[in-house]
Amino acid sequence: MELSQISPKFSDNVLNATNSFELHITDSDDLKGMPKSVLDAAAFTAKQKGKDSGWVFTLQPSSFSPFITYCQNRELRQKNVSGLCFPRFQ
User: Fold this and answer.
1) Are the C-beta atoms of 64 and 57 separated by less than 8 Å?
2) In the chain, at which end, N or C, are there fewer CB atoms within 10 A of the end residue's CB?
3) Kind of pairing between the strands at 23-25 and 55-57
4) Residue 12 exposure: Cα atoms within 13 Å on the Cβ side
């Protein structure tokens, strides 16, 4: 295969992996420090993705950035960053 064929395929694979990552949280204690507007957006995302309850955070900048900034739970921040660095292995 030539680079002209491989490059778009690689980009598509990265985009698909990034878009498929979801961090579904159901325990409100895990979300201490999060602004209400961020939680409202994550609850809306959860409903859009067919979840019955909780909050869903993705790797999209509008979700990822506030999560990393405000979430006080270090383990969950690490999961989210791992999803950004290694989306296929989650």
Assistant:
1) yes
2) N
3) antiparallel
4) 5
Cα(first)–Cα(last) distance of the chain, in Å? 29
Q: How many CB atoms are located within 10 Å of the residue 6 CB?
A: 10
pLDDT in tens, 60-86: 899 999 999 999 999 888 888 776 665
Measured between alpha carbons, how far is 44 from 33 in angstroms, rounded to an integer?
Answer: 19
Burial of 9-25, coded b for 16+ CB within 10 Å and e otherwise, reads eeeeeeeebbeebbbeb
Tell me what pLDDT residue 90 has.
47
Q: Specify the pTM.
A: 0.79
The whole-angstrom separation of Cα 73 and Cα 27 is 11
